[in-house]
Amino acid sequence: MKYYIILLLFTISFSSFAQKVEKDGKTYEVKKEKIFLNGEDVTETLNLEDRQAILKEATTISEEMKVKEKAEKAAKKLEKENKKAEKAQKKAEKAQKKAEKELKKREKLQKNFERAQNNLEKAQKKYEKLKKRGKLSPVDEGKWLEKIEKLTEKAEKAKKKL
């Protein structure tokens, strides 16, 4: 609705403004098929050829103004569309960066989890090996069990973060 009102106003303004036409060193104003010279109606005093030439030139000028106006509107519309596209592109880039950041975070958490699991397995194997050979004193055994418990907690924390 707003655009129709603006279009109506432009149409009225074009029809109400006079077209200035230069002919034989004189400046004529053309308003709705009437020709004025210095504010006086001279439509009837001009011969038919001059009248037609002036009216034809006035319509040409009017059409040029309309074409120019359409081109300006198209340029504004294109500019708005470009701004929209730039905005959408920035938004997409931002979303992509966020996704990449999330992926890196996930990979890091996965790596931490695997490392914690690996350390736990190594510690358990070493503990079992030492226990099997009988090289563990009761104090050492307590230390190894405490170490394995801490590594188990680290692995569980890493798994939760995943």
Walk me through this protein's architecture.
There is one protein chain. The chain is an alpha+beta fold. Helix content is 77%, strand content 10%. It has helices at residues 2-16, 48-133, 138-161; strands at residues 19-23, 26-31, 34-37, 40-41. Strands 1-2-3-4 form a 4-stranded antiparallel sheet, with helices on one face. Strand 3 (34-37) and strand 4 form a beta hairpin. The longest helix has 86 residues, at 48-133. The chain is rod-shaped and about 130 Å long. The model has no long low-confidence stretch (mean pLDDT 83).
- Helix coverage percent of residues? over 70%
How many helical stretches?
A: 3
Q: How would you classify the helix and strand content by structural class?
A: alpha+beta
* Unreliable segments of 5+ consecutive residues: none
Oligomeric description of these chains:
single chain
| Gross geometry | rod-shaped
Instruction: Specify the biggest β-sheet.
Output: 4 strands, antiparallel
Quick recap:
This protein is of the alpha+beta class and 162 residues long. The protein is built from three helices and four strands; from the N terminus they run αββββαα.
